[in-house]
Amino acid sequence: MYWSGKSIWVEWIYKRFLKKDTIWAVKAISEASWVWRKILKYRNEVEDVIMHIVGNGRSTKLWQDNWHPRGLLIKGFGDRIRYDSGLPHLATVEEILRDGKWHPTSATTLDLREAWGCLQSIHRLHYEKDDLVVWKGDPIGVFTAKSAWEIVRRRGRLVGRKQCGLKDETIIQPQDFPEELNSLVKDDAEFKVYNRM
Predict the structure, then answer these.
(1) Per the domain annotation, does 189 fall within a domain?
(2) Following DSSP, what letter does each residue of 33-47 receive, concatenated?
(3) Given pLDDT bands bounded at 50, 70 and 90, which one contains residue 172?
(4) Which domain holds residue 173?
(5) Among 82, 96, 126, 172, which is most exposed with the fewest C-beta within 10 angstroms?
(6) For the chain, how many structural domains are there in total?
């Protein structure tokens, strides 16, 4: 959905199922197709593999995209953090940036203090650049159906490994990231993908 651009299928999915929501928050409906139900079933398997690197913050959802060290803020803190911040459900990261610097709402609760407290440590693109969506399941950061299948398949195998008492994590090596990504992930030489089953 992030990489398909002007695909007719993606436009139809937005109009029919997502409307003004995101893939991470939308609820499954009974009349949905088998394919859409399967996409929703496996979305949690790839949630931590899609990473948003913030530039101007315009296309990254504040609460529902994986841009923050805690992952999706709405999942990490619950709906209450959104109400406490006073920012809307579909707010973008741009709403807590001013002139390229972090400028979040007042940290009136412990959850907001925790969320806003680590903003300075987040690696960002230049504030005049568009946000970047990176698929961490592929060494060059580009989505392919094959890499998505490998993640789902690998995690399925990990369930069996866990039952045998083996370690349940897989390391993804970012060997050939584009130059712009190399500087952003230099401190994170390995991406760990954990089994969530």
Answers:
(1) yes
(2) -HHHHHHHHHHHHHG
(3) very low
(4) 142-197
(5) 126
(6) 1
